[in-house]
C-alpha cells in the first residue's frame, strides 16, 4: 500500500486515541521510521505530508539526508555510538536514545548549540533492550547539567512485544509518572516535557497514556 493510504488509516486511529483520552491531535508528533526502507519510500512519506523521519544508523541517515536534506526533521532513534556523533550531529534535530554520560559528553563537544535529547529508559527491564533503569534516570539527568549543549526534552521507552494491553499500559504509565516527577523538578537543562513511546503495534495505547512522539515503521512505510 502507499504511504498515503497507510497514513489515512493511522490518522483515524490517532484521532480516536486522542478522543478517548481527551487530547488534541496536534499534541502528537508522528515520526516515520525509515530504517528498513529506501530513500524513495522515505520521500513518499514526505510527499504524503509527514514532516518527521526517524533513522537508527549513521549510514541510513547520511544516505537519506544526501537526497532529502532539510525537507525533513530528522530523529535519531537507534543506539548512537559516541565515535559517530561527529558525523551526524549536523543533520539530526532530536536524539531519542541518550543513555550514557560518554554519549552526552560527545554530543556536548560536537554540537554548536543545545541538542534536544530524550533519555532512553528500559522501563520493562528486558535484557534485550538498551536504556537506563527507571531508578537511574534522575541522577543521570542531574549529572547532565554540566553539558550546555545537551537539553533533555523528554523520556523514551520501547514497550515489550506483547498483546497484553494492561502490561503495555503499565509500561507507558510508569514512563509518564517518571517524566512528571522530573518535569516538576524544574531543571533548567531538562524541561522534560515529552514522551517518545508507541510503535506500530501499540501507538494508540501509548497516545491514550500520554505519548507526545510516536515512532511508526511497518504500519506506515512498510518493511
Based on the model shown, name its key terms.
223 residues, alpha/beta, TIM Barrel, eight-stranded parallel β-sheet, 8 helices
Q: How would you characterize this protein structure?
A:
It contains eight helices and eight strands, in the order αβαβαβαβαβαβαβαβ. With 223 residues, it is an alpha/beta fold. Helix content is 39%, strand content 17%. The chain has one domain: Alanine racemase (TIM Barrel, Alpha-Beta Barrel). The chain has an eight-stranded parallel β-sheet with strand order 7-6-5-4-3-2-1-8.
CATH-defined topology? TIM Barrel
| Named CATH architecture | Alpha-Beta Barrel
Helix content: 25-40%
Radius of gyration: 17 Å
Mean pLDDT: 96
Domain Alanine racemase N-terminal: 10-222
Cofactor: pyridoxal 5'-phosphate
GO molecular function, one term: pyridoxal phosphate binding
Keywords: Pyridoxal phosphate
Amino acid at each position: 500500500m502507499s504511504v498515503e493510504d497507510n497514513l489515512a488509516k493511522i490518522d483515524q486511529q490517532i484521532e480516536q486515541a486522542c478522543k478517548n483520552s481527551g487530547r488534541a491531535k496536534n499534541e502528537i508528533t508522528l515520526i516515520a521510521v525509515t530504517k528498513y526502507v529506501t530513500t524513495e519510500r522515505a520521500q513518499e512519506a514526505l510527499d504524503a505530508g509527514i514532516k518527521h523521519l526517524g533513522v537508527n544508523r549513521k549510514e541510513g541517515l547520511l544516505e537519506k539526508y544526501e537526497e532529502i536534506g532539510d525537507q525533513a526533521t530528522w530523529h535519531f532513534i537507534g543506539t548512537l555510538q559516541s565515535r559517530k556523533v561527529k558525523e551526524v550531529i549536523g543533520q539530526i534535530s532530536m536524539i531519542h536514545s541518550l543513555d550514557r554520560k560518554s554519549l552526552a559528553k560527545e554530543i556536548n563537544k560536537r554540537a554548536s548549540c543545545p541538542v534536544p535529547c530524550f533519555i532512553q529508559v528500559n522501563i520493562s527491564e528486558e535484557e534485550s533492550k538498551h536504556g537506563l533503569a527507571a531508578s537511574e534516570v534522575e541522577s543521570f539527568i542531574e549529572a547532565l547539567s554540566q553539558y550546555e549543549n545537551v537539553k533533555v526534552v523528554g523520556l523514551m521507552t520501547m514497550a515489550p512485544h506483547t498483546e497484553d494491553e494492561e502490561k503495555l499500559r503499565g509500561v507507558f504509565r510508569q514512563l509518564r509518572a517518571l517524566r512528571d516527577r522530573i518535569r516538576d523538578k524544574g531543571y533548567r537543562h531538562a524541561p522534560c516535557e515529552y514522551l517518545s513511546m508507541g510503535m506500530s503495534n501499540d501507538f494508540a495505547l501509548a497516545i491514550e497514556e500520554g505519548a507526545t512522539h510516536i515512532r511508526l515503521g511497518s504500519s506506515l512505510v512498510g518493511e
